[in-house]
Amino acid sequence: MSSVKAAPSRSFTGRTMAGFSAVGRMDGVLLVAVAALAVIGTMLVWSSTRTWAPGATGLVKKHILNLVIGAVLAGATTMVNYRALRSYAPLVYVVSLVGLFLVITPLGSTVNGAHSWIMLGGGFAFQPSEFAKFGLVMMLAMLLAKPAADTDRPRGMDVWIALVIAAFTMGLVMFQPDFGTTMVLGVITAGAIVIAGIRKRWIGGLTLSVLGAAAAVWFLNVLEPYQIARFTAFLNPASDPRGVGYNSTQSLIAIGSGELFGKGLFHGGQTTGRFVPEQHTDFIFTVAGEEFGFLGSVTVVALLGVILMRGVRIAQGCDDRFGTLVAGGIVCWLAFQSFINIGMTVGIMPITGLPLPFVSYGGTATFANMIAVGLLQAIHIRQHQF
Questions:
Q1: Which residue, 106, 151, 196, 301, has most beta carbons within 10 Å?
Q2: How far apart are CA 335 and CA 332, in angstroms?
């Protein structure tokens, strides 16, 4: 009896059509919100760097290149079956740890007080702690997705393993020291555990443990002097407006001077004069406040809110715990980082070195954020497929 083989052309056509079908099922609102923030961010990066960047548009071209690479990574991630990633979560986590270990070798470099970078040459650098967020989200989702036999809650042993893994990752990042990213990792862990449905007594115990750890970090002088100075400036920025309170003071001046409609793109005096340090990265929201005004700032916040709400909807609509935990972890990551970044520019949070997702200039952070969006899209496309 002869066997019949499928024609290669039909197989290729089938895969192509499946790809187009997947694109058609993408969350269009999420896609548009991310693209709008990327465009706004490019304009703000251009405005904040045009007076000093090499070749006037050097950093803007590099930023656009990073966005293009990030979009390719997001597209590739969207095409991946996220359920298959569950088996690879330990590998992703181990690779992220390798990156964190490489930072503390001679390959690591210090930028703005944090030994968090690996210089690649040609003006490019890699920050492993950004991908540590992604690795931790995947690993926690894998561990907490399997419920105990007699309940839909995760097993106690899996929760303990998740906490140990998270503590190990946060310890390596804190060693750099990068307090801002450590806080993001902590929120990702807390969010994943709560979403997994642990008992209230676990939540109470973990809350007390976190408060105790925070007190120990403060009183045992684990923080670097510049980090302590940032907290001091947060509590009372007027005490030293030309010293530790300089960034906070100038940030508030820049945002307040924009009033309702802003001074217009390229017309911000604080931005042009570079009165606020790192305006194209950590303090890019001050550029939006000065040049686009209150309405422009609200637009940025609203677009971030749309991304977060779509992420929450994807998490709620997912038909398996792993996808729900991955989407929920990503939402916690982006929400807390956005809150910290915007909060520090308006004086309600201490200053930390965290960029504004999808808006700030950056390479590794842009790639990590775009991969996160691609993963949300992958979950959305396949959340009702068995």
A1: 196
A2: 5
